[in-house]
Design brief:
The protein is an alpha/beta fold and about 350 residues long. The chain has helices spanning about 5-10, 35-45, 55-70, 80-85, 90-110, 110-115, 120-125, 160-170, 175-180, 195, 200-215, 230-240, 245-250, 260, 285-290, 295-300, 310-315, 325-340; strands at about 130, 140-145, 185-190, 220-225, 250-255. The chain has two domains: about 35-105, Orthogonal Bundle (Helicase, Ruva Protein, domain 3), CATH 1.10.8.20; about 115-300, CRAL-TRIO lipid binding domain (Phosphatidylinositol Transfer Protein Sec14p, 3-Layer(aba) Sandwich), CATH 3.40.525.
């Protein structure tokens, strides 16, 4: 019998399916590494990633998810799980905890994660509150530029800004290059007033820092703050209790001294607004990237789901986060901190 005949005999045709029976979905494509040789070497040295063991490690994490958290609704694709392994330097237990936290964070903050797609955030994107610069830094890190002064609180709540940040991180982390190199944040606090700063209280700080440190598979290599007014001392006083020491040590406050900024981020990669030579700051290119990804986010960005009780019951809250009661207690001190610094 010919090969074609075998195929016809063993594979049901569309005509043979009942009216209510659909063909099985195609298997996801196998993982194909897109890293350059240089990045493969970097991943080996910094992340303990061994190409010859990569798929074995992914399978080990997949088996752990199925065994320890069978009701966790998550993608188990090679490429998706690899993000969490890289973010935790191929420590299986820590990668699993990060994956659980990732879904738990989304489940616990519906105001941010419900209906999370680019078309729902057009106002934030158009405001220029955030963008990704077109050039990476010397280490290959993409630069996420955040400008709080572009936000007008009367237009929409602060949670819309956080949604835009998370959406951007989701898009960035799709790149294996970003998974290995990490990102840099450039925050411009020029013109941030006391009234605007008061929107960023302990509850918001706890949630955001919890996601960035313990609930998202990305490596934050540095946070450069420029043009910060005196009020920023109050903002940082709110943030600092939630920061791990390693992350706190990666904050650099430059004030209006752009020469200080340029010792870390060369002028050649910065827009002229920050003393650079890379032209004017353009938000349209990154906005177009996000809006062009609408279908991907609608199809692949899972909604918050219930996480199995066995994992969440045993898992400690993300390290470094205060309880809600602690946040309530500290809220009373926020305005006095801000006023004293203003």
């Amino acid at each position: 019998m010919s090969e074609e005949s075998d195929s016809l005999r063993t594979s049901p045709s569309a005509a043979s399916l009942s009216e209510n029976e659909l063909p099985p979905p195609p298997e996801p494509p196998g993982y194909v590494c897109s890293l350059t040789e240089e990045l493969v070497t970097k991943a080996r040295e910094e992340l303990q990633e061994k190409p010859e063991w990569r798929l074995r490690d992914v399978q080990a994490l997949r088996d752990m998810v199925r065994k320890e958290c069978p009701t966790l609704s998550t993608s188990l694709d090679d490429a998706f799980l690899l993000r969490f392994l890289r973010a935790r330097k191929f420590d299986y237990d820590r990668a699993l905890q990060l994956l659980v936290n990732y879904h738990s964070c989304r489940r616990s903050w519906p105001e941010v994660f419900n209906n999370l797609k680019p078309s729902a955030l057009k106002d934030v994107l158009a405001s220029g509150f955030l963008t990704v610069l077109p050039h990476t830094d010397p280490r290959g890190c993409h630069i996420l530029c955040i400008r709080p002064d572009r936000w007008i609180p009367s237009n929409y709540p602060i949670t819309e800004n956080i949604r835009a940040i998370y959406l951007t991180l989701e898009k960035l982390i799709q790149s294996e290059e970003t998974q290995v190199n990490g990102i840099v944040i450039l925050a411009d606090y020029k013109g941030v007033s006391l009234s605007k700063a008061s929107h960023f209280g302990p509850f918001i700080a706890k949630k955001v820092i919890g996601i960035l440190q313990d609930g998202f598979p990305i490596r934050i290599k540095a946070v450069h703050v420029v043009n910060e007014p005196r009020i920023f001392k109050g903002i940082f006083a709110i943030i600092k209790p939630f920061l791990k020491e390693k992350i706190a040590n990666r904050f650099f406050l430059h004030g209006s001294d752009l020469n200080s900024l340029h010792t870390n981020l060369p002028r050649s990669i910065l827009p002229k607004e920050y003393g650079g030579t890379a032209g004017e700051l353009d938000i349209t290119a990154w906005n177009a990237v996000l809006l062009a990804s609408e279908e991907d986010f609608v199809r692949e960005f899972c909604p918050p789901v219930s996480v199995c009780d066995s994992i969440l019951g045993q898992a400690l809250p993300p390290e470094g986060l205060a309880s809600d009661a602690q946040c309530d207690d500290s809220l009373r001190a926020v305005k006095s901190q801000l006023y004293s610094c203003y």
